[in-house]
Sequence to fold (202 residues):
Amino acid sequence: MSDAEPQRVVEFAFPGPLRDALIAAIRSGDKTATSALLRGYEVDGESLPVVGARGVVVDSHGEPAFWIETTGVRVVPLGEVPLAHALAEGEGYASVAEWRDGHVRFWESAEVRAELGEDFVIDDATPVVLESFRVCGPEGPAPDAAAEPEWKRRRRVAEIFGEELPDTTSDERENRRPREESASEAWLRAQVPPHHGQSGLD
Fold:
């Protein structure tokens, strides 16, 4: 595998409407950042992403969508996530408070709690991994993708992060729901060197 090829398989959220929406936001250029709890990396025994690392993003069917390249990584306390990052996530957040509310609701869901541990507490000091990225191939952003109106994007986000979380929740953690691998996904995983795992993203 050359240095220019993807080194990991990247899955945003769980398969379904949320993943589809996130991939569309990346294609349109609206989404250039993601976030995850450091705790998730520790529990999974994964290394943090590094600048220059490439990954192949898969869709809800486990099929390759496009490649992304990490352009920035930093770990900050939850209480210090900047507005620029919240806006770069491209999900219609107008403030850090909105970003935090949506993400904490997901991180405190039963599904994620099962991974992080029931005793894990999320507060201002909780370390969060902030990653920025760019689409680097092979398709790149769809040139004919119509821009989604802001009101429509905000309504979609409100539906996703409503009072009750749907089965396919949230941005920027990888799918951990057991499922059968597709043939293409099995091939993709076969290309990943033993020391590279999937990275958890939101």
Notes: Helices lie at 17-28, 38-44, 83-88, 96-107, 110-116, 150-160, 183-191. Residues 140-147, 163-178, 191-200 have pLDDT under 50 and may be disordered. The domain at 8-183 is CATH 3.10.400.10 (Sulfate adenylyltransferase). The chain has one domain: 8-183.
